[in-house]
Structure to design on (419 residues):
């Protein structure tokens, strides 16, 4: 059955990549754009049944910070050949919504030869093709979203120069071998049951669940899924019936899907659903973008920064309760406007400090004046009453005297009566 699924996937992939008219990769001339893959990778490709020029596919996982390169084997299925740690990614987990929101895209993108840039100011680069059909159908904007070198990012996937040379070489060799376009699948994280359960309450969950179907199809077939858009959503490995076409914003037409794929997918999903139901705990979720509202707030920050205005060093963040968090630390001054704003801020701070010091000095002077006006009062403390210490002694002297008189009286009475 797996062989049938692979053949079906290859047919769908062939439909997806037909008709390339961009410039040839033979136009690439810079030396670092023509560097060859290292012998170790070539040896591993040979061991896995891959040719140097066989088709490629890239997968990106934001949370894990990984970019994977997959290559097609002689049996038509793809296998992992290299994985790289992404040097820098800006923004949070979640899709890109608008120009300037500093988000890196999530979804299914296509790279053709004309999107390769050997003369990039970031060493080497290729444009991943944002916005794609899905993004445009949903009103999302942005441009020049790249995989590039130089380890610097404002919405791109930035690699080291050494890494981008290898990634670029994989794509270049595949184009030379006849591949007309390759797919970049960008995900927030590896879409396992445990990870999906961690984010089940996230506002981006429904979008991620939609991406997961394409993720699952690749996990099952190891062939890039055929990607289309209708009703403003992604659909995968569907073939429209009766010569119909997919309208990104219109109703989805009747379509078919290979039976072998449907069967395999249902079996795969049944196991996933069971694992999802039992998943709990685990690592805490990472920060995610709170939709178009937060994207607009960050975009406004980006525009001010681009104009040279003095803005906080980090973009603002929208909290779940609707409040906005803005850091107090201001960014560098790198423009005339920024210096002007900094001077105004400094003058305002100096004015505020002077006013506070004036108020404090006035309060201190008033307190000193009041103290000087108060009369000095000398308190007379009365002497304590003398303590009577003689009474007990007098009582002690009186007691024996009384006892002696009583004895004399007793003696006289006894003498009177002859005793």
């Amino acid at each position: 059955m797996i062989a049938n699924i692979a053949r079906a996937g290859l047919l769908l992939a062939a439909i997806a990549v037909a008709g390339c008219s961009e410039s040839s990769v033979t136009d690439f001339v810079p030396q670092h754009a023509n560097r060859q893959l290292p012998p170790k990778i070539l040896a591993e490709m040979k061991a896995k049944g891959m040719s140097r020029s066989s088709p490629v596919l890239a997968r990106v996982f934001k949370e894990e910070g990984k970019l994977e390169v997959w290559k097609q084997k002689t049996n038509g299925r793809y296998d992992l050949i290299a994985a790289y740690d992404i040097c820098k990614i800006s923004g949070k987990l979640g899709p890109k919504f608008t120009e300037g929101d500093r988000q890196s895209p999530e979804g299914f993108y296509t790279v053709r030869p004309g999107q390769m840039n050997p003369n990039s100011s970031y060493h080497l680069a290729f444009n991943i093709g944002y916005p794609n059909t899905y993004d445009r159908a949903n009103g999302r904007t942005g441009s020049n979203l790249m995989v590039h070198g130089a380890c610097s990012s404002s919405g791109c996937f930035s690699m080291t120069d050494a890494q981008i040379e290898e990634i670029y070489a994989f794509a270049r060799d595949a184009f030379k071998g006849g591949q007309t376009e390759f797919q970049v699948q960008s995900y927030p994280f590896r879409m396992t049951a445990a990870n999906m359960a961690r984010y089940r309450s996230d506002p981006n969950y429904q979008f991620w669940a939609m991406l997961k179907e394409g993720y699952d199809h690749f996990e099952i077939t190891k062939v890039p899924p055929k990607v289309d858009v209708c009703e403003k959503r992604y659909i995968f490995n569907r073939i429209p019936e009766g010569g119909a076409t997919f309208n990104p914003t219109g109703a989805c037409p009747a379509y078919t899907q290979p039976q072998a794929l449907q069967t395999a997918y249902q079996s795969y999903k049944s196991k996933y659903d069971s694992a999802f139901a039992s998943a709990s705990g685990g690592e805490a979720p990472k920060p995610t973008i709170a939709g178009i509202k937060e994207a607009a707030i960050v975009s406004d920050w980006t525009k001010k920064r681009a104009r040279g205005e003095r803005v906080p060093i980090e973009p603002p963040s929208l909290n779940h309760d609707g409040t906005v968090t803005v850091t107090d630390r201001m960014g560098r001054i790198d423009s005339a406007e920024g210096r002007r704003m900094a001077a105004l801020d400094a003058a305002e701070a100096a004015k505020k400090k002077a006013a506070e010091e004036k108020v404090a000095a006035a309060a201190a002077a008033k307190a000193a004046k009041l103290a000087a006006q108060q009369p000095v009062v000398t308190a007379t403390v009365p002497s304590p009453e003398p303590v009577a210490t003689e009474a007990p002694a007098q009582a002690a002297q009186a007691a024996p005297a009384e006892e002696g008189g009583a004895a004399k009286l007793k003696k006289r009475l006894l003498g009177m009566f002859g005793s």
DSSP finds ten helices and 16 strands in the chain. The first strand starts at residue 56 and ends at 61. Residues 7-28, 388-396 have pLDDT under 50 and may be disordered.
